[in-house]
Amino acid sequence: MNASSDIHDDPDLDPDEAALVASAGGAAAISWEAPEGFRSGFACFVGRPNAGKSTLTNAIVGEKIAITSSKPQTTRRIIRGIVNRPDAQLVLVDTPGLHRPRTLLGERLNDLVYETWSSVDVIGVCLPCNQRIGPGDEFLLKEISELPRRPKLVALATKTDLVSRERIGQHLMKIASMEEQLGLHWEAIVPVSALTDDQVDIVVDELVSLLPAGPVLFPDDEVTDEPVETRIAELIREAALEGVSDELPHSIAVIIDEMRPREGRPADKPMMDVFASIVVERDSQKGIIIGHRGERLKEVGRVARLQARDLLGMPVHLAIHVKVMPEWQRDAKYLNRLGF
Ligand SMILES: Nc1nc2c(ncn2[C@@H]2O[C@H](COP(=O)(O)OP(=O)(O)OP(=O)(O)O)[C@@H](O)[C@H]2O)c(=O)[nH]1
């Protein structure tokens, strides 16, 4: 194992940051009793890689919680977002994609997927309008229909902004015909574009209508119960994946080595020190991440630092090391260390 390239951004407050810190103190938790007829429960989105699951989750929850990327299969952890309404609380669970396991990591991820599917009340099946429904989608639905405890299903025809109305119509007909073909039942079929925010509210209405009666499950000022360290690790991973070659995404993991408030700062001007490692499998991959004269890593740090600052509501000093851990995806010891 070896470490390299360390980036340190200028930690001084700029006026923007000062404003952010000033406005971060005022949020108060509101608590209320669940009224008669209140519904609560869990939902997740499934679909082929790139189907738009994370983007839809973000559009619904209205805060950046899951990572989105133009590369397939980058959503690796379960991340919950919570929608609070006067009549319901909807907890969204984001799952990794299901794929043929080639490594121990692959097997563990698939187990996680089945576990998540079985534990939710509703599954939203994302079927992008710009791609034909194929064997991959059918495989996924067959797996769901064979679960011992089958949740309710809603079909979501995603990315409607990319195609014509005529094409949307054909796509919806095809989705409807899957009921008979695969012996399943859609509670609803909803066309939606998360990108242009078209029908996102209808998706939420449908999901909520399928939840059981129940109390508030999480305090209503919580957007996600994912530890903040995990969310910052995801932000760094997302930034590191931007614009890198196709073989890299599966080989990247991020560990937050340490996160602590900077000592000696005035109480009204806090700052967070974050020490993180990007883990890759080979020296050549380390080179790609770091880039010529460290330029790429510096950019990764800059992007992730600004997002971490928004998340924490205070300036962040971010130091990133790149480490090589050969074959980490196959090694139980490394996987445990990385939290899988
Ligand atoms: N035009 C358009 N693009 C979208 C929409 N939703 C998602 N995308 C894009 O599609 C790509 C994949 O979206 P994601 O939300 O990451 O897809 P995912 O299903 O979570 O992908 P995996 O994590 O790989 O399983 C990204 O480039 C998104 O910007 C949409 O409604 N319209």
From TrEMBL:
It is a peripheral membrane protein. Its main location: cytoplasm. Residues 158-161 are annotated as: G4. One of its GO terms (cellular component) is cytosol. Residues 47-54 are annotated as: G1. Residues 192-194 are annotated as: G5. Residues 73-77 are annotated as: G2. CDD domains: Era, KH-II_Era. GO terms for molecular function: GTP binding; GTPase activity; ribosomal small subunit binding; small ribosomal subunit rRNA binding. Keywords: Cell membrane, Cytoplasm, GTP-binding, Membrane, Nucleotide-binding, Ribosome biogenesis, RNA-binding, rRNA-binding. Residues 94-97 are annotated as: G3. Pfam families: KH_2, MMR_HSR1. It is found in: Cytoplasm; Cell membrane. Residues 39-213 form the Era-type G domain. GTP binds at residues 47-54, 94-98, 158-161. Residues 244-326 form the KH type-2 domain. The keyword Nucleus does not apply. One of its GO terms (biological process) is ribosomal small subunit assembly. The keyword Transcription does not apply. Belongs to the TRAFAC class TrmE-Era-EngA-EngB-Septin-like GTPase superfamily. Era GTPase family. Monomer. An essential GTPase that binds both GDP and GTP, with rapid nucleotide exchange. Plays a role in 16S rRNA processing and 30S ribosomal subunit biogenesis and possibly also in cell cycle regulation and energy metabolism. This is GTPase Era. It comes from Propioniciclava flava. The gene is era.
